[in-house]
Amino acid sequence: MVKHRSKVIVSLLAAVLGVFGAHWWYLRRPFAWLFTLLTLGLLAYAQTFPSNWDNPAFLLLLIPMAAGCVEALVFCLKPDAWFDGRYNPGSGTKTQTGWAPVLIAIFTVFLGGTVVVFGIAATVIHVYTALGWLDGYQL
């Protein structure tokens, strides 16, 4: 018998810890270690810069953060039958989530929107500073 996986737990993991691929580990995807290794490598590389937010490695981390939010929305908005057919074949239990995925989707939209807007702003400031367009301004 296959262990039943929860759609709510996968959605929460993707929204909150999607940057590390925690939901991939929970779903037992084959290359979850590669995604986690990439994120940890970018985090280690980001620590070599004097500013934590104004460096290319940190800006690249915004991509898996946004991807985790998108995957959380996909898991939340897909029907329970789709999730069971893909991730719980032969488990013998049907997923009945109710309102939890809706609330997680609302949380994920706010979180993902914040990540994307911050990413755009940080990227613009990084590029403008590198080009010298903000010389003389106090940031």
Mean pLDDT: 90
- The tally of strands reads 0
Instruction: Report the sheet with the most strands, covering strand number, pairing sense and barrel closure.
Output: none
What percentage of the residues does DSSP assign to strands (E)?
under 5%
The residue ranges in which pLDDT falls below 50 over 5 or more consecutive positions are none
Overall form: elongated
SS-based class = mainly alpha
Give a topology summary.
Layout: H1 7-17, H2 22-26, H3 32-46, H4 56-77, H5 80-87, H6 100-131
Helix pairs in contact: 1-4, 1-6, 3-4, 4-6
What's the gist of this structure?
With 139 residues, this protein is an all-alpha fold.
What does this molecule look like?
It is a single chain. The protein has 139 residues and is mainly α. It has one domain. The protein has six helices and no strands. Helix 1 runs antiparallel to helix 4, helix 3 packs antiparallel against helix 4 (56-77) and helix 4 (56-77) packs antiparallel against helix 6.
Give descriptors for this structure.
139 residues, mainly alpha, 6 helices, 0% strand, elongated
